[in-house]
Amino acid sequence: MGLSADLVDETRLFTALSLLTECLDSELIAANGPNRCWHGMWPGQAYPSFGSLMACTSDCGVSWVQVMSLYPSAQFPLPDQAQATRCASPMAMEVRLGVARCLPRARDREANPDPQVTFDSIRLSMSDERAMKRAVLCCLPERAKTNADMRSLDVSLGAWTPIELGAGVTGGTWRAYIG
Question: Is residue 9 scored above 90 in pLDDT?
Fold first, then answer.
């Protein structure tokens, strides 16, 4: 799909989203976890496909950043009341960062995975959680300082939640707010 060269871009929040995607990648690499099969921005509110993880034969993962909502916000991170919004109102966005990894599986006739494999999986999930937090609170503000339009960027971290095991993967997502 080719986009028109004269497309009018939303520069501030889109730049922040791009930087956050780069930050997540670099923080996950710095955390020394296993490789990921896919990393990038993801549209919509659904998770990206975990299909590449279903036949896990080696350590792998999927990581993403997606916009969950955009809203006017004169007092970040709170949304403005509908009657108070104006054309020039500053905007904020809620984003979701996620990392999904292979779910530990039982071997042979065992009912549950080996306890050490489960321990390692939880340890990796917590390392990924830390990398996501660092991407939002450390890396993004630092990279924003180098962009004149981004120097006044505000960030706020919401809650981390695990991905439901019914998805066949393990991992979690962080909600973050950028304005």
Answer: no
